[in-house]
Each structure stands twice: as structure tokens, then as C-alpha cells.
Design brief:
Layout (H helix, E strand, L loop, with lengths): L1 H5 L18 H5 L11 H23 L1 H7 L1 H14 L14 H7 L8 H19 L8 H4 L10 E2 L4 E5 L3 H16 L4 H6 L1 H4 L8 E8 L2 E7 L1 H11 L4 H6 L7 H13 L3 E2 L2
Helix pairs in contact: 3-5, 4-5, 4-7, 6-7
């Protein structure tokens, strides 16, 4: 029954009449779905088959506006239909649907070429926001918690909701431009047409190494640009390095005052917590 419910829809978004092995689908479905006075077994299961696909496609459509803008509506729909065939929903919550989308995009570049790298970056960025939204927030570290502990012994943990990204494209700026264009479109009398033209109106960004931290502050999601050395420090701390070891990853060109300013900001934002 599960296979019947999650198998891809056919033409006209109706259930396919053939089972994957070539048998008539009605023959297979009649073994576990009885008819009622109004519907055949096939027609009863078709209701759930269509519900599954419409709901999962709609969920990804809403969660991934940036990826839609990168690819355009048609290519986006082809991508996520292929993705759901390979990675059907396995969770009680639709929240988890995009979890493996970035890796899928990188493995199946034919679906997103010539914008595969940008699409993968955008999928990673939008999934990071999903994770950040409901990840835990532990009591933040205070200056008193670290006073007197030498850097060679001090290990700092990052809040579970902080997500660190090293990307090839400035997807944060692109996402803001897409959001702004959508808001302007919603204010017009042609909302649907505006959304269809979204990818044409917002120019895709050029490649430029970008380091981001996606985080939650006072209940809202933000993304903050990082310098490459700052990203290396935070990544090292998250992996369990001591403060001294983590700061060493920044490289020789970074000044102590700069590192001090970074840590002041991160402490103020509550990014650190006890291990």
C-alpha cells in the first residue's frame, strides 16, 4: 500500500495505470484495497496517491523560494519530483523533506545544469534555515563561565541552532532580492504571473566565495556574513578544538583586535553554550 501511495503520478497528475513490473495497477491494488459502492479499490488508493504528491510538492515549493528562483518553476518541479522519487518522505513531519536535497543536486547535475553549484548552495542555505528554526537553544555562555580558564583548556560549544556554511555563491543577497521581488509582486494585481517571472527579474549572482552563519536571535532567523578566518575559528570550536587551537586556524594575517571583536559579537548574540 505504501508503494501505491508514494509512487509517482502519471499524466494529468493521476495515478499510473501500470505497476512498475508492468502488471495492471488495478490487479495489484485489488489485493489490499476493497471497493465501496462509489469507488473501486484503485480509485480509493488514487485519492491518497494524489494527496501524498500534492502535499509534498507543495511543501517543498513553499520551503525553497530561492531554489525556485534559481531554476525557474518548470525545472524546479522536475527536480523535486525526481528527488521525491529517490527520497520519499520517511518522517512524520514535512519539515525533514529537504534534508538530502543538496547532495541529490550535486549527484544529479543534469537536472540543474548549468546552475548546479548555485542550486546546491541555495538548497544548503534554505535547509540551514529549516534546521535553525526549531533547533535547540541552550543557556548561553557568560563571561563569568570562562573567566580564569586558560585558552589551551577552554572548549566552547556553539548553540545547536547555529549553522555554518561555506558557499561558492552569495546566496544570502540573492535570497533577499528574491524576497523583495516577491513582496513587490504580492502588492500588484498579477501575483501568479509575477511569481512565474521571478527568476527572470532577479538576476542570478556570480560566483564569489561566501561564508555564512545562519542563527536564531529572539525567536527570529538571521544570517550573518563571516570572514573566512572567522568561519574557520567557529568550525574548529564546533569540532571540539580548544580556544587556542581554534584561533590558530585563523592564520597569521588576522590581528588580535579583530579576533576580540568577533568574539564580542558572538557572545552578544549568544552563540556559545556550555559543552
Amino acid at each position: 500500500m505504501l508503494q501505491a501511495v508514494i509512487r509517482p503520478l502519471g499524466p494529468g497528475y493521476r495515478s499510473r495505470r501500470r505497476w512498475p513490473d508492468g502488471r495492471p495497477a488495478t490487479v495489484v491494488i485489488d489485493t489490499f484495497a476493497a471497493p465501496n459502492p462509489r469507488l473501486s479499490g484503485f480509485e480509493r488508493i488514487e485519492i491518497y496517491n494524489r494527496m501524498y504528491w500534492f502535499r509534498t510538492l507543495d511543501s517543498l515549493h513553499e520551503d525553497l523560494p530561492g531554489l525556485r528562483a534559481v531554476l525557474g518553476e518548470r525545472r524546479f518541479m522536475r527536480l523535486i519530483e525526481a528527488y521525491l522519487v529517490r527520497h520519499p518522505s520517511r518522517s512524520f513531519t514535512l519539515r525533514d523533506l529537504p534534508a538530502r536535497l543538496e547532495a541529490f543536486i550535486r549527484r544529479t547535475s543534469r537536472l540543474t545544469a548549468p546552475h548546479t553549484a548555485l542550486a546546491a548552495d541555495m538548497a544548503a542555505f534554505e535547509w540551514a534555515q529549516v534546521e535553525c528554526f526549531d533547533a535547540a537553544a541552550l543557556p548561553p555562555l557568560t563571561p563569568a563561565d570562562v573567566t580564569g580558564v586558560p585558552g589551551s583548556r577552554l572548549r566552547l560549544s556553539l548553540q545547536p541552532h547555529v549553522r555554518l556554511l561555506a558557499l561558492r555563491y552569495p546566496v544570502d543577497e540573492f535570497a533577499l532580492a528574491v524576497k523583495d521581488a516577491a513582496l513587490r509582486g504580492d502588492a500588484s494585481n498579477a501575483v501568479v504571473a509575477s511569481r512565474r517571472r521571478l527568476s527572470r527579474r532577479v538576476r542570478r549572482p556570480r560566483a564569489a566565495p561566501t561564508w555564512l552563519a545562519v542563527h536564531r536571535h529572539e525567536g527570529k532567523i538571521y544570517y550573518k556574513r563571516l570572514d573566512a578566518p572567522a568561519h574557520r575559528i567557529l568550525t574548529a570550536l564546533r569540532s571540539g578544538r580548544t580556544l587556542t587551537q581554534a584561533v590558530a586556524t585563523a592564520g597569521r594575517g588576522v590581528q588580535p583586535d579583530q579576533v576580540r571583536a568577533w568574539f564580542t559579537t558572538w557572545m552578544h548574540l549568544g552563540w556559545f553554550c556550555r559543552r
